[in-house]
Specification:
120 residues, mainly alpha, 7 helices, 0% strand, elongated
C-alpha cells in the first residue's frame, strides 16, 4: 500500500491523470519529473504507483502505446515504415525496428510482408 487511504486515493488519481497525459502525448512524452509535477506526485511516487496500479513502468507504458499505434499504421499500409517510425516518436528507423522486434518478435517489414497481424 501507499500508507493512508487518503495517500492511496491521491496516488491513484495522479497515476490515472498521468495515464491520460501519456495517451495524449506518447509521441513526445513529458519527462518523468515534469509528469510527476503535473499530476502532483513525487517522481518515485509516480513510478511506484504506476507499477502498482497499471502493472507497468511509465517507460513500458509509453512503449506499448507507441507499438499499438505502429501496428495500427502497419495494417493500414498507407504509410511507409519510415513514416510510421517518425509518427510514433522515433528519430531513427533502426531504433523503431529494434523496439518493434522486441515487442512483437518480428520486424515491421517482415510483419507487413506476412499479412498476419498480431492481436493486441
Amino acid at each position: 500500500g501507499f500508507g493512508s487511504a487518503e495517500a492511496s486515493i491521491l496516488t491513484a488519481r495522479g497515476v490515472l491523470r498521468a495515464q491520460d497525459i501519456l495517451k495524449a502525448n506518447f509521441v513526445t512524452p513529458p519527462s518523468l519529473d515534469a509528469l510527476a509535477q503535473e499530476v502532483g506526485l513525487s517522481r518515485s511516487g509516480l513510478c511506484a504507483g504506476f507499477r502498482q496500479i497499471l502493472g507497468a513502468t511509465v517507460f513500458d507504458y509509453i512503449q506499448d502505446l507507441r507499438m499499438q499505434q505502429a501496428l495500427s499504421m502497419l495494417k493500414d499500409r498507407s504509410a511507409s515504415i519510415t513514416q510510421i517510425a517518425f509518427a510514433v516518436g522515433y528519430n531513427h528507423v533502426s531504433s523503431f525496428s529494434v523496439a518493434f522486434q522486441r515487442h512483437f518478435g518480428t520486424t515491421p517489414s517482415d510483419l507487413r510482408r506476412s499479412n498476419v497481424m498480431p492481436v493486441i
